Amino acid sequence: MKQGDLVTRRSYGGDVVFKIQDIQQQQVAVLRGVELRLLADAPLLDLDTVPQLDPFQSMGTTHPKWVESMRRTTLAAQDVSTGAGETPPTANDKSKPKPRPAYFDLPGKVLHLDGDPAYLRKCMSLYGELRVPAEGYYVSEANMAEALYRLLPQTRPDIVVITGHDGILKNRPTGDITQLSSYKNSHNFVDAVRVARQYEKNRDNLTVVAGACQSHFEALLAAGANFASSPARVLIHALDPLCVAAKVAYTPIKDTVDIVDVIGLTHSGLEGLGGIESLGSYRKGVPKIQYSTPK
Questions:
Q1: What is the chain written as a DSSP string?
Q2: What is the distance between the alpha carbons of residues 157 and 138, in angstroms, rounded to a whole number?
Q3: Class of 66-85+100-284 per CATH?
Q4: How confident is the model over 84-115, as pLDDT tens digits?
Q5: By CB count within 10 A, which of 6, 171, 245, 264 is most buried?
Q6: Where are the residues of the annotated region Disordered (predicted)?
Q7: Cis status, amide bond into 140, omega within 30 of 0
C-alpha cells in the first residue's frame, strides 16, 4: 500500500473511496475522498485497496442530475441571444412588433480555487461544457487566503469558489463542533472568505461559494460567504460547489438566485449546502456583432 493508492476503510464499512495522500511514520494514512470532498486519516491496517482507476475517471462517466438542467438553462440563454424562434413581421403586417435585436450573453465569471487537482480538472471541464467562463487554480487549502490577494484583482470574477477537502477531527481538542479548531480545513476556508470580502464587501457584486465536506457552515457565512457547506455536517459531492456557481452565473442580475431550487439540485441537498438571498450575475447586451476576418 503506497501513496496514490485508492482505498476504503473497514471500520466505516467501505462506504467512501479515498486516495492515499501521505503515509505518516505511525503507519497512519492521510486520505482524500475521490468523489466526496472529505479529508480523513486511518491506520494502514484499517484500509482495503480497491481497483486502481484514474481518480479523474472514477468520479463517474455520468454527470449529476443537475447538469442537464443547467445545460437547458445555458441553451435557453443562447437561443435568446441569437434571436432563435423569432419571426420577423411581413411588410403588410403592421400589427406585429418589430423583431427584437439579437443579444450577446455575458454569464458571470468564476474564479475557482480547489485543494484537489483531480477535482479541479473535472470542474474546469464541466464549466466549459456549461459555457460558464471560469479560471481555475489548484491551491492547497492552507494557502488559499494568500492566493486570493493576488488572484482576485488579477481575474476580477463575479463568483469565487473556495473549496477542497475538510472534515471534523475525530480527536477534537474541545469536543465541540462549534469551534473552528474541531475542523481540518474550515479555518483555512474562513480566512479565504475574509480575504474575498476585504476585496469586495458587497455580496451581490461578488458571490462567494465556500466549503467542503462537514465544513463549519455558520463560520463561513459569518465570514462573508453567500453559499457554504455543510449545515448538517454531512459529506458533499465534489461537484456540488460548481452546481451553485453555475446557477449564479446564469441567473439574471435583476433576479435573486432561488436558494431552495439550486441546492435541491445538488447531491447533498439542504443538509450539505445552504446560503443567503443573492443576486445572479448573468447579463445581456446589444447589439450582437459578427466580426469577419479581413481578406
A1: --TT-EEEEGGGTT-S-EEEEEE-TTSEEEEEESSB-BEEEEEGGGEEE-----HHHHT-SSPPTHHHHHHHHHHHHHHHHHTTT--PPPTT--SSPPPPPPPEEEPPPEEEEES-HHHHHHHHHHHHHTT--EEEEE--GGGHHHHHHHHHHHH--SEEEEE--B-B-SS-SSS-TTSGGGBSSHHHHHHHHHHHHHH---TTTSEEEE--TT--HHHHHHHT-SEES-TT----BTTHHHHHHHHHHTSBTTSB--HHHHHHHSSSHHHH-EE---B--BEEES---------
A2: 17
A3: alpha beta
A4: 544 445 555 556 666 667 778 899 999 999 99
A5: 245
A6: 77-101
A7: no
How is the chain split into domains, by residue range? 6-52, 66-85+100-284
Q: Which of 59-63, 139-143, 183-187 has the lowest mean pLDDT?
A: 59-63
pTM of this prediction? Answer: 0.81
Mean pLDDT across the chain: 85
Residue that wins the pLDDT comparison between 130 and 9? 130
